[in-house]
Amino acid sequence: QLQLVESGGGLVQPGGSLTLSCAASGSAFPYRTIGWFRQAPGKEREGISCSNPVAGTELYADSVKGRFTISRDDAKEEIYLQMINLKPEDTAVYFCAAAWGLALPVEDMCRNTHTQKYWGQGTQVNVSS
Predict the structure, then answer these.
(1) Is it the case that residue 27 has pLDDT exceeding 90?
(2) What is the Cα–Cα distance from 51 to 44, expressed in whole angstroms?
């Protein structure tokens, strides 16, 4: 079992920066593939960044590549998403997630909707002037 709680959302102007945090509690956290997902109004949830700590691999959606960075602190059991050069189209509810299985490939984590995941409750990010 794993519990996830996001924080750090809010309102930011275009071109601004924001860092989201996700506090995890539960078993085997250092070995779980993690990810950040977002869901904009009227759209499906999409995986935007995933990280496999065992394989040392990361994956970013094209829409955020070069602007967003995923990271983790296993000692604190926290997950982060650093976002720079934010755009209005980044407005969405952002969710952190961790895989049920250990060392899940990042492609399965981010792109396979059937992969079982633990989810946080989500945090709203609004990019607007």
Answers:
(1) no
(2) 21
